[in-house]
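sanity check both lines:
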Amino acid sequence: MKFPYGLSDFGVLRQEDYFYQDRTGLIPQLEQSGRQLLFLRPRRFGKSLLLSMLEYYYDVRHANQFDRLFGSLAIGKNPTPLHNSYLILHWDFSLVKCQGEVADVERALHTHVNDCIREFASRFKSYLSRPVEMDSDNALSSFRSVLLSVSEAGHKLYLFIDEYDNFANEVLVARREQYEALLYGDGLFRTLFKAVKAAAGGQGLDRVFITGVSPVAMSDITSGYNVAENIYLNPGFNALCGFTEAEIEALLNTLQNGSECWSVREALELMRTFYNGYCFSERSTETVYNPTLSLYFLKQLQADGEYPRQLLDDNLSMDRNRLRHLAGLLDGESLLMDALIQQKALAIPAISRRFGITDMLENTPDK
């Protein structure tokens, strides 16, 4: 068994026979949930692999690979009519540089979106009847040209935005004034999402799927993009990313294969202690294992025949700057300490689906 630790390209996983925990059976449910979806999960929780799987499923260029990629999976046995029917545009905002002044961040955002559009124009050149016109100083203009080209060619566009709030969160931790300049009023981040909203309102953009870690940035652009279906607390998608305990136990049984060096019961208890506990819906009782940590553990166990001596993967260590930022908030230090010393799961009486930066920084915990 080949564990895909650190790999997020669905095509590579399937073509090179890496392990893949099938989540394709949820595609029909995703389609029925809405045309513009917002899905939030913590860092390194499999969001990029999820998007990659969806891209391969919907991309018109991969139609001849459908059986190889999806034939043995749940969706391959009963595909939806939309499979391999879209031109795909992908933005990854974790690649946007956030250093410097507001103008520098805006320039970096324009550059990233334009780079993605150039890649789109190259990949789908044979599907377009007119070339995409690029405006190096204004990515919004380039985006409008994409919409026109796709519409005139009679195709449909699917936009994927990965880590939508990554650079905004980085700016927020360091410089709140710049964050507000980007997301409030006529800020570029808000304006860009207004353009996405308008495009999906009849200008040629058929579907949007957005991932991130927090609803804060989406809340702060307010009416700039208030059309997304928030599916991240939906019980049906609780395990859309990550592993259930039953799946972990099945993998351990496969690896154990009669070995007396370790036991499935002991390994499962160890993983349950360190990697389990996520539950993303008030209406779900099933907890989810962090996929990055789980794959790290399983790969080490397979290679060495023993448990990893260091159970926390260094690649998943929380940014110290974020911890300092949280500790500096009103009652933030005491909340962090309470979370660290809890002997049982934290009880959360109510979950807010959206909250902006003002709500987060100025409201006390008992509110």
Notes: The mean pLDDT is 87.
